[in-house]
Write a structure and sequence with these properties.
Radius of gyration: 22 Å
Shape: elongated
Structural class: alpha/beta
Strand order of the largest sheet: 3-8-9-2-10-1-11-12-13
Distance between the termini: 14 Å
Mean pLDDT: 93
Largest sheet: 9 strands, mixed
Strand content: 25-35%
Helix content: 25-40%
C-alpha cells in the first residue's frame, strides 16, 4: 500500500505525522519505507537516523546544438514554452540556457536537421538509507537552481517501490502544484494534515479539489485541533471526508519536534494515537474508491 502524507500548505505538521507514523509502523513490525518527496527541503532524516546505503544521481535531457548542422530555422526556439532556447535567424545565432530547460525533448523532435542531441544534466539525487542493507528510508533532493523537482520525486518513489516493502509512506511536498500531484498520483490513499484556521481551510479545499480531479481517496488529520473554529469540521462533513485523528496543540510536542525528536518515543499517549491511526488507514487498503 502506498500512503501519501500531504498538506495544502507548509507548517501544518506533515513531516511530524510522517515520521511518527513511520516509527509506530516499524515498532509494530510492519514492513514500511519512508520516502521524503519534499525534494527542495527534505528533512525527515533529521528525525529518522539511518545509515546511507546507496546514492543515485538523477539526470534529465538538455539540448546540445551541432552548429555545423543547424540551419537557424528557429523551430526549436518557437516550440520551447520555457524560452530555454534563443534563436535569431538573421544573425545565425542560437543559444541554450540549461538552467531553464525542463527536459521535455520537444526541440529534439521538431528539429529536421538532426542538429540537436542529448546533453544529460544532473538535477539532484536519490539516497537510500537503512540497516544491514535493508532500505528503510529514501530521500529525494534537488540541486540548487533547478526549476522542477518532479523527475527526482518520481525516481525516489520508484526506488522505494522497487525495494519491495509492503507499505510505502510518502512525505509529500506542501501545496497542490506539480510536485504534490506527482507524489499523490501513485498513492492508494492520501492522508491530509491540516489545521482549523481560515488559511488551513482555504488550502485544504484547493488540495481536495485536486485529489477529486483524479478520484483519489483521502482522510484528514486536524493538527492543533483546539485552535481556530469548527468551519474545518463542517466542510469535511459536507464532503463526507473522514477525520482520522485530531492532535491538540502542545508545548511539549513543539519542543520535542524542535529538538529533532520523535514524539511517540517520548510520550506514550502519542504512540497510542498513531497506532489508532494505522488501524483506521487499514480500512481503506482493500476498500473500493
Amino acid at each position: 500500500m502506498i500512503i501519501c502524507v500531504a498538506s495544502g500548505k507548509g507548517g501544518t505538521g506533515k513531516t511530524f505525522v510522517s515520521t511518527n507514523l513511520f516509527t509506530v509502523m516499524k515498532r509494530r513490525g510492519l514492513d514500511v519505507i519512508l520516502t521524503d518527496c519534499d525534494a527542495e527541503v527534505p528533512n525527515s532524516g533529521i528525525f529518522i537516523e539511518e545509515t546511507k546505503i546507496s546514492e543515485e544521481k538523477v539526470k534529465v535531457f538538455c539540448p546540445e546544438i551541432s552548429f555545423d548542422k543547424c540551419t537557424y530555422c528557429g523551430k526549436c526556439a518557437d516550440m520551447c514554452n520555457f524560452h530555454a532556447i534563443t534563436c535569431i535567424p538573421e544573425m545565425d545565432y542560437i543559444n541554450v540556457l540549461p538552467d531553464i530547460c525542463h527536459g521535455c525533448r520537444l526541440c529534439e523532435y521538431v528539429c529536421k536537421e538532426d542538429a540537436i542531441s542529448p546533453m544529460w544534466k544532473n538535477i539532484g539525487k536519490v539516497t537510500s538509507f537503512g540497516h544491514d542493507g535493508q532500505v528503510e528510508m529514501v530521500e529525494a533532493r534537488v540541486n540548487v537552481k533547478q526549476l522542477s523537482p518532479v523527475p527526482i520525486i518520481r525516481k525516489a518513489i520508484a526506488t522505494a517501490v522497487q525495494a519491495g516493502s509492503d507499505i510505502v509512506l510518502l512525505d509529500a511536498p506542501p501545496g497542490c502544484s506539480c510536485p504534490f500531484v506527482n507524489t499523490a498520483l501513485p498513492a492508494d490513499f492520501v492522508l491530509l494534515v491540516t489545521e482549523p484556521t481560515p488559511f488551513g481551510l482555504s488550502d485544504l479545499k484547493h488540495t481536495i479539489e485536486v485529489l477529486e480531479s483524479f478520484d483519489k481517496r483521502c482522510g484528514v488529520i486536524i493538527n492543533r485541533s483546539d485552535l481556530g473554529d469548527d468551519r474545518m469540521r463542517e466542510f469535511l462533513l459536507s464532503k463526507n471526508i473522514e477525520v482520522l485523528a485530531e492532535i491538540p496543540y502542545s508545548n511539549k510536542i513543539a519542543e520535542c519536534y524542535a529538538s529533532g525528536k520523535i514524539a511517540v518515543e517520548e510520550y506514550p499517549e502519542y504512540a497510542e494515537l498513531f497506532g489508532s491511526l494505522i488501524e483506521k488507514i487499514k480500512k481503506y487498503e482493500d476498500s473500493s474508491c
